[in-house]
Amino acid sequence: MKPAVLVTKRIFPEAVELLRRHAEVDYVDSDDGLSPEELEARSRGKQGIVSQLTDKFTAERIERLEGVRVIANVAVGFDNVDLAAATRQGILVTNTPDVLTDTTADLTFALLLAAARRIVEAHRFVHSGKWRRWTIDLLAGRDVHHKTLGIFGMGRIGQAVARRAAGFSMRVLYHDARRAPEALERELSLEFTDKLGLLRESDFVTLHVPLNDSTRKLIGAAELREMKPSAILVNTSRGPVIDEAALAQALADRVIAAAGLDVFESEPHVHPLLLELENVVLAPHIGSASIDTRRKMSLLAAENALAALAGRRPPNLLNPEAISQ
Ligand code: DGY
Fold first, then answer.
1. Is residue 75 lining ligand 1, measured as CB closer than 6 Å?
2. Which domains, ranges and CATH numbers included, belong to the chain?
3. 285 has catalytic annotation
4. In 184-202, which positions are buried (b, 16+ CB within 10 angstroms) versus exposed (e)?
Protein backbone atom coordinates (compact mmCIF):
# COMPACT_ATOMS: atom_id res chain seq x y z
CA MET A 1 0.00 0.00 0.00
CA LYS A 2 1.22 3.48 -0.85
CA PRO A 3 1.98 5.78 2.11
CA ALA A 4 -0.25 8.82 2.66
CA VAL A 5 1.32 12.27 2.41
CA LEU A 6 -0.15 15.65 3.27
CA VAL A 7 1.14 18.64 1.30
CA THR A 8 0.03 21.57 3.44
CA LYS A 9 0.19 24.35 0.84
CA ARG A 10 0.83 24.93 -2.86
CA ILE A 11 4.25 23.80 -4.13
CA PHE A 12 5.67 23.39 -7.63
CA PRO A 13 3.63 20.84 -9.63
CA GLU A 14 6.64 18.68 -10.52
CA ALA A 15 7.04 17.90 -6.83
CA VAL A 16 3.37 16.96 -6.46
CA GLU A 17 3.68 14.68 -9.50
CA LEU A 18 6.74 13.01 -7.99
CA LEU A 19 4.93 12.45 -4.72
CA ARG A 20 1.87 11.07 -6.52
CA ARG A 21 3.99 8.41 -8.24
CA HIS A 22 4.86 6.89 -4.86
CA ALA A 23 2.22 8.04 -2.38
CA GLU A 24 -1.45 8.86 -1.87
CA VAL A 25 -1.29 12.65 -1.78
CA ASP A 26 -3.67 14.93 0.10
CA TYR A 27 -2.70 18.17 -1.63
CA VAL A 28 -3.80 21.53 -0.24
CA ASP A 29 -3.56 23.30 -3.60
CA SER A 30 -3.85 26.78 -2.15
CA ASP A 31 -1.62 29.57 -0.88
CA ASP A 32 -3.73 30.13 2.22
CA GLY A 33 -2.31 27.20 4.13
CA LEU A 34 -4.11 25.43 6.94
CA SER A 35 -5.13 26.76 10.33
CA PRO A 36 -3.50 24.91 13.26
CA GLU A 37 -6.73 22.93 13.75
CA GLU A 38 -6.98 22.05 10.04
CA LEU A 39 -3.31 21.08 9.98
CA GLU A 40 -3.90 18.69 12.84
CA ALA A 41 -7.06 17.24 11.31
CA ARG A 42 -5.56 16.78 7.83
CA SER A 43 -2.41 15.18 9.32
CA ARG A 44 -4.46 12.32 10.75
CA GLY A 45 -3.83 9.06 8.94
CA LYS A 46 -0.78 10.46 7.13
CA GLN A 47 2.72 9.04 7.29
CA GLY A 48 4.39 12.04 5.67
CA ILE A 49 3.89 15.81 5.72
CA VAL A 50 5.42 18.24 3.23
CA SER A 51 5.27 21.50 5.16
CA GLN A 52 6.23 25.15 4.76
CA LEU A 53 7.65 27.68 7.17
CA THR A 54 4.16 29.02 7.86
CA ASP A 55 3.13 25.65 9.38
CA LYS A 56 3.90 25.74 13.07
CA PHE A 57 4.71 22.33 14.55
CA THR A 58 4.86 23.00 18.28
CA ALA A 59 5.79 20.27 20.76
CA GLU A 60 2.11 19.78 21.74
CA ARG A 61 1.03 19.46 18.12
CA ILE A 62 3.84 17.05 17.31
CA GLU A 63 2.88 14.85 20.25
CA ARG A 64 -0.55 14.44 18.69
CA LEU A 65 0.82 13.47 15.24
CA GLU A 66 0.11 9.77 15.41
CA GLY A 67 1.67 7.64 12.69
CA VAL A 68 3.57 10.50 11.03
CA ARG A 69 7.10 9.36 10.14
CA VAL A 70 8.47 12.44 8.38
CA ILE A 71 8.00 16.21 8.21
CA ALA A 72 9.73 17.51 5.08
CA ASN A 73 9.96 21.29 5.31
CA VAL A 74 10.22 23.24 2.05
CA ALA A 75 12.84 25.64 3.49
CA VAL A 76 16.36 25.55 4.80
CA GLY A 77 15.13 27.14 8.06
CA PHE A 78 13.25 24.81 10.39
CA ASP A 79 12.43 27.01 13.37
CA ASN A 80 8.75 26.28 12.65
CA VAL A 81 9.28 22.67 13.79
CA ASP A 82 10.13 21.73 17.38
CA LEU A 83 12.99 19.42 16.46
CA ALA A 84 13.47 17.99 19.95
CA ALA A 85 9.78 17.05 20.16
CA ALA A 86 9.90 15.46 16.71
CA THR A 87 12.97 13.45 17.71
CA ARG A 88 11.22 12.22 20.88
CA GLN A 89 8.30 11.08 18.73
CA GLY A 90 10.65 9.37 16.26
CA ILE A 91 9.54 11.72 13.46
CA LEU A 92 12.26 12.52 10.92
CA VAL A 93 12.54 16.19 10.00
CA THR A 94 14.21 17.39 6.81
CA ASN A 95 14.96 20.77 5.19
CA THR A 96 16.11 22.01 1.76
CA PRO A 97 19.68 23.34 2.07
CA ASP A 98 22.20 24.01 -0.73
CA VAL A 99 19.70 24.54 -3.56
CA LEU A 100 18.87 28.02 -2.23
CA THR A 101 22.30 29.17 -1.08
CA ASP A 102 23.28 31.28 -4.09
CA THR A 103 19.78 32.62 -4.66
CA THR A 104 19.58 33.84 -1.07
CA ALA A 105 23.08 35.33 -1.25
CA ASP A 106 22.06 37.16 -4.44
CA LEU A 107 19.03 38.68 -2.70
CA THR A 108 21.23 39.67 0.24
CA PHE A 109 23.44 41.60 -2.11
CA ALA A 110 20.45 43.06 -3.93
CA LEU A 111 19.14 44.47 -0.63
CA LEU A 112 22.59 45.67 0.40
CA LEU A 113 23.08 47.50 -2.89
CA ALA A 114 19.53 48.82 -2.96
CA ALA A 115 19.85 50.26 0.54
CA ALA A 116 23.34 51.68 -0.08
CA ARG A 117 22.53 53.24 -3.46
CA ARG A 118 18.93 54.21 -2.56
CA ILE A 119 17.49 52.31 -5.52
CA VAL A 120 13.92 52.15 -4.22
CA GLU A 121 13.88 55.86 -3.37
CA ALA A 122 15.31 56.57 -6.82
CA HIS A 123 12.68 54.46 -8.51
CA ARG A 124 9.89 56.22 -6.62
CA PHE A 125 11.42 59.59 -7.45
CA VAL A 126 11.48 58.94 -11.20
CA HIS A 127 8.16 57.14 -11.20
CA SER A 128 6.34 59.97 -9.46
CA GLY A 129 7.54 62.53 -12.03
CA LYS A 130 9.71 64.45 -9.52
CA TRP A 131 12.86 64.26 -11.65
CA ARG A 132 13.38 67.74 -13.10
CA ARG A 133 17.17 68.18 -13.26
CA TRP A 134 20.51 66.55 -12.53
CA THR A 135 22.18 67.84 -9.36
CA ILE A 136 25.52 67.04 -7.79
CA ASP A 137 24.12 65.06 -4.88
CA LEU A 138 20.79 63.88 -6.23
CA LEU A 139 19.98 60.66 -4.34
CA ALA A 140 23.64 60.26 -3.44
CA GLY A 141 24.13 57.05 -1.49
CA ARG A 142 27.01 55.11 -0.02
CA ASP A 143 29.73 53.12 -1.74
CA VAL A 144 29.80 49.37 -1.34
CA HIS A 145 33.13 48.62 -2.99
CA HIS A 146 36.20 48.58 -0.73
CA LYS A 147 34.02 48.86 2.40
CA THR A 148 33.91 46.45 5.32
CA LEU A 149 31.22 43.78 5.40
CA GLY A 150 30.43 42.05 8.70
CA ILE A 151 28.75 38.64 8.38
CA PHE A 152 27.04 37.00 11.34
CA GLY A 153 26.95 33.26 10.61
CA MET A 154 29.55 31.69 8.32
CA GLY A 155 27.43 28.77 7.11
CA ARG A 156 26.61 28.06 3.48
CA ILE A 157 24.78 31.36 2.83
CA GLY A 158 27.29 33.45 4.81
CA GLN A 159 30.06 31.96 2.68
CA ALA A 160 28.18 32.66 -0.55
CA VAL A 161 27.75 36.28 0.55
CA ALA A 162 31.48 36.51 1.32
CA ARG A 163 32.26 35.24 -2.19
CA ARG A 164 30.11 38.00 -3.67
CA ALA A 165 31.80 40.58 -1.43
CA ALA A 166 35.16 39.65 -2.98
CA GLY A 167 33.82 40.90 -6.31
CA PHE A 168 33.26 44.27 -4.67
CA SER A 169 36.77 44.30 -3.17
CA MET A 170 35.27 44.36 0.32
CA ARG A 171 37.04 43.49 3.56
CA VAL A 172 35.05 40.69 5.18
CA LEU A 173 34.74 40.25 8.94
CA TYR A 174 32.65 37.45 10.41
CA HIS A 175 31.40 36.16 13.68
CA ASP A 176 30.04 32.68 14.35
CA ALA A 177 29.63 30.46 17.39
CA ARG A 178 32.18 28.20 15.67
CA ARG A 179 35.21 29.56 13.90
CA ALA A 180 35.51 28.47 10.24
CA PRO A 181 38.39 26.20 9.20
CA GLU A 182 41.60 28.06 8.46
CA ALA A 183 41.53 26.96 4.81
CA LEU A 184 38.11 28.57 4.32
CA GLU A 185 39.21 31.76 6.08
CA ARG A 186 42.18 31.93 3.75
CA GLU A 187 40.20 31.11 0.61
CA LEU A 188 37.57 33.79 1.28
CA SER A 189 39.92 36.26 3.01
CA LEU A 190 37.76 36.17 6.13
CA GLU A 191 38.67 37.83 9.40
CA PHE A 192 37.14 36.26 12.49
CA THR A 193 36.11 38.76 15.16
CA ASP A 194 33.89 39.00 18.22
CA LYS A 195 30.37 40.37 18.08
CA LEU A 196 31.31 43.83 19.30
CA GLY A 197 34.26 44.13 16.94
CA LEU A 198 32.06 43.20 14.00
CA LEU A 199 29.38 45.71 14.94
CA ARG A 200 31.85 48.54 15.49
CA GLU A 201 34.01 48.04 12.42
CA SER A 202 31.55 47.08 9.70
CA ASP A 203 30.04 49.43 7.13
CA PHE A 204 27.51 46.70 6.30
CA VAL A 205 26.25 44.03 8.66
CA THR A 206 24.42 41.02 7.29
CA LEU A 207 22.76 38.19 9.24
CA HIS A 208 22.97 34.53 8.21
CA VAL A 209 22.26 32.65 11.43
CA PRO A 210 19.52 30.12 12.08
CA LEU A 211 16.79 31.25 14.48
CA ASN A 212 17.18 29.59 17.88
CA ASP A 213 17.37 30.62 21.53
CA SER A 214 20.90 31.95 21.16
CA THR A 215 20.19 34.08 18.08
CA ARG A 216 16.75 35.49 18.98
CA LYS A 217 17.13 39.30 19.20
CA LEU A 218 20.83 39.02 18.34
CA ILE A 219 20.52 42.63 17.17
CA GLY A 220 18.67 44.96 19.55
CA ALA A 221 18.92 48.59 20.64
CA ALA A 222 22.29 48.09 22.37
CA GLU A 223 23.85 46.40 19.33
CA LEU A 224 22.49 49.06 16.97
CA ARG A 225 24.11 51.74 19.10
CA GLU A 226 27.48 50.00 18.66
CA MET A 227 27.22 50.22 14.85
CA LYS A 228 28.55 53.14 12.82
CA PRO A 229 25.98 55.87 12.13
CA SER A 230 26.77 55.27 8.43
CA ALA A 231 26.21 51.50 8.70
CA ILE A 232 23.62 49.49 6.80
CA LEU A 233 22.01 46.34 8.23
CA VAL A 234 20.71 43.52 6.02
CA ASN A 235 18.62 40.57 7.14
CA THR A 236 17.63 37.64 4.95
CA SER A 237 17.69 35.05 7.76
CA ARG A 238 14.75 35.16 10.16
CA GLY A 239 12.92 38.23 11.46
CA PRO A 240 13.16 37.51 15.21
CA VAL A 241 16.97 37.66 14.99
CA ILE A 242 16.42 41.45 15.12
CA ASP A 243 14.37 43.39 17.66
CA GLU A 244 12.20 44.97 14.95
CA ALA A 245 10.80 47.81 17.07
CA ALA A 246 14.32 48.77 18.18
CA LEU A 247 15.54 48.71 14.58
CA ALA A 248 12.64 50.85 13.34
CA GLN A 249 13.39 53.43 16.03
CA ALA A 250 17.14 53.33 15.29
CA LEU A 251 16.45 53.94 11.59
CA ALA A 252 14.07 56.79 12.37
CA ASP A 253 16.64 58.36 14.73
CA ARG A 254 19.49 57.71 12.26
CA VAL A 255 21.39 55.65 14.80
CA ILE A 256 22.32 53.65 11.70
CA ALA A 257 21.95 54.82 8.12
CA ALA A 258 19.71 52.24 6.49
CA ALA A 259 18.52 48.65 6.36
CA GLY A 260 17.48 46.04 3.83
CA LEU A 261 15.02 43.54 5.26
CA ASP A 262 13.53 40.42 3.74
CA VAL A 263 12.25 38.88 6.97
CA PHE A 264 10.20 40.18 9.89
CA GLU A 265 9.35 39.24 13.44
CA SER A 266 5.73 38.44 12.82
CA GLU A 267 5.24 37.93 9.08
CA PRO A 268 3.37 39.19 7.15
CA HIS A 269 3.02 41.98 9.74
CA VAL A 270 5.70 44.66 9.41
CA HIS A 271 6.37 47.21 12.16
CA PRO A 272 4.33 50.29 11.10
CA LEU A 273 7.25 52.67 11.57
CA LEU A 274 9.31 50.70 9.04
CA LEU A 275 6.58 51.34 6.47
CA GLU A 276 6.98 55.09 6.90
CA LEU A 277 10.75 55.30 6.54
CA GLU A 278 12.72 56.08 3.38
CA ASN A 279 15.94 54.53 4.66
CA VAL A 280 14.75 50.95 4.60
CA VAL A 281 14.23 48.57 1.69
CA LEU A 282 11.58 45.94 2.41
CA ALA A 283 10.92 42.61 0.71
CA PRO A 284 8.30 39.96 1.56
CA HIS A 285 10.55 37.01 2.50
CA ILE A 286 11.72 36.31 -1.05
CA GLY A 287 15.34 35.35 -0.29
CA SER A 288 15.08 32.02 -2.10
CA ALA A 289 12.36 33.11 -4.50
CA SER A 290 13.72 32.46 -7.94
CA ILE A 291 11.59 30.15 -10.05
CA ASP A 292 14.40 27.61 -10.45
CA THR A 293 15.24 27.55 -6.76
CA ARG A 294 11.68 27.31 -5.49
CA ARG A 295 11.12 24.42 -7.92
CA LYS A 296 14.28 22.70 -6.64
CA MET A 297 13.20 23.25 -3.03
CA SER A 298 9.79 21.71 -3.74
CA LEU A 299 11.39 18.69 -5.41
CA LEU A 300 13.98 18.25 -2.69
CA ALA A 301 11.31 18.26 0.01
CA ALA A 302 9.35 15.63 -1.95
CA GLU A 303 12.49 13.50 -2.32
CA ASN A 304 13.22 13.80 1.38
CA ALA A 305 9.70 12.72 2.28
CA LEU A 306 9.72 9.78 -0.13
CA ALA A 307 13.13 8.57 1.03
CA ALA A 308 11.97 8.52 4.64
CA LEU A 309 8.74 6.74 3.75
CA ALA A 310 10.69 4.12 1.78
CA GLY A 311 12.84 3.45 4.85
CA ARG A 312 15.88 5.17 3.39
CA ARG A 313 17.83 7.94 5.11
CA PRO A 314 16.57 11.23 3.62
CA PRO A 315 19.31 13.33 2.01
CA ASN A 316 18.66 16.30 4.29
CA LEU A 317 17.86 14.70 7.61
CA LEU A 318 18.07 17.14 10.53
CA ASN A 319 17.55 14.71 13.41
CA PRO A 320 19.32 11.39 12.75
CA GLU A 321 18.76 10.53 16.44
CA ALA A 322 15.07 10.12 15.59
CA ILE A 323 15.87 6.98 13.56
CA SER A 324 16.73 4.99 16.67
CA GLN A 325 13.63 6.15 18.60
C1 DGY B 1 14.20 29.21 3.97
O2 DGY B 1 14.40 28.32 3.14
O3 DGY B 1 14.38 29.04 5.18
C4 DGY B 1 13.72 30.52 3.48
O5 DGY B 1 13.59 31.45 4.47
C6 DGY B 1 12.43 30.36 2.72
O7 DGY B 1 12.74 30.10 1.47
1. yes
2. 4-99+291-324 (3.40.50.720), 101-282 (3.40.50.720)
3. yes
4. ebeebebeebeeeebbebb
